[in-house]
Design brief:
13% of the residues lie in helices and 26% in strands. By secondary structure, it is an alpha+beta fold. The strands form 5 sheets. Strands 1-4-2-3 form a 4-stranded antiparallel sheet, with no helix packed on it. A 4-stranded antiparallel sheet has the order 5-8-6-7, with no helix packed on it. Strands 11-12-13 form a 3-stranded antiparallel sheet, with no helix packed on it. The N and C termini lie far apart (76 Å).
Length: 255
């Protein structure tokens, strides 16, 4: 906001002097000094309204009469006449992208990590020991995706995780039902990590109960016990056994 005797942009109010002054609307023409608004990248429009600035973005102030007037703010003890304004920019936002440069922008709703970066921007990230290779991404709507997918091919200072975890999320269990990928993308074996005690109990009930007088699946029981104990199972149906066990409802367990 400027105060001078000649507005280049928006003159919305005039005042009688630089101190101890009265004000008038800029369309009255009685006072020498102009109160002005300007912007380098926006279009400002204003209007004099009675009672409120409903439908406008902002209230600049209130005044008592058209000239020889007193002024006040819009909230504390406002006068009945309001100076209202709208501001518009010569750009648009689309899915977080600022139309003038095609980059993500906070002003358009992008996440802070993506501000100023193009959609699809990828950041290489190593873990603390410089082994694991992750890629953090600003997606097509400029939302930040904190990637936790292991990558076996390193880049820059990253040497990459073990190839067996390549493409798996940190914490994912591998198809053998025994191994999982830790936070450094190293496959680890832990009893009960991928096959919980609850799942194992349901598997034993399922594979040792014969409600339809069919042959009990002894091989499945043996394989599941090996998996649970971390020994692994070479049976070609291992993953099938695990998937079935994990899908079983808790209601299968005896009370």
């Amino acid at each position: 906001m400027d105060l001078n005797n000649g507005c280049v942009d928006i003159n919305f109010l005039d005042i009688s002097d630089l101190t101890n002054a009265h004000v008038e609307r800029s369309d009255q023409g009685n006072y020498l000094f102009d109160v002005c608004l300007s912007s380098d990248d926006a279009t400002i429009t204003y209007s004099y309204e009675a009672g409120s600035c409903s439908g406008y973005q902002a209230c600049l102030g209130t005044y008592s009469t058209g000239t020889n007037s007193h002024v006040a703010d819009c909230v504390t003890s406002p006068y009945s006449n309001y100076i209202c304004a709208n501001i518009s920019y010569g750009y648009t936002c689309n899915n977080g992208v600022f139309s003038l440069d095609g980059n993500c922008s906070l002003a358009c709703g992008a996440d802070a990590q993506c501000d100023g970066r193009p959609p699809g921007f990828r950041t290489d990230r190593c873990d603390a020991v410089g082994q694991t290779y992750f890629i953090d991404i600003c997606n097509s709507t400029c939302q930040f995706i904190d990637d936790s997918v292991c990558n076996s091919t390193g880049t820059g200072g990253c040497t990459g995780g073990l190839s067996v975890c390549d493409g798996y999320f940190v914490g994912d269990c591998l198809p053998d039902g025994v191994s999982f990928c830790d936070s450094s993308c190293v496959n680890q074996t832990s009893v009960g990590n991928c096959l919980t005690k609850q799942t194992m109990r349901k598997a034993l009930v399922h594979y040792t109960t014969d409600p339809y007088n069919r042959k009990l699946d002894v091989e499945a029981v043996k394989c599941m016990i090996k998996v649970y104990l971390g020994a692994g199972c070479s049976d070609s149906r291992t993953q099938e056994y695990i998937d079935i066990a994990k899908a079983l409802p808790d209601s299968i367990l005896p009370n």
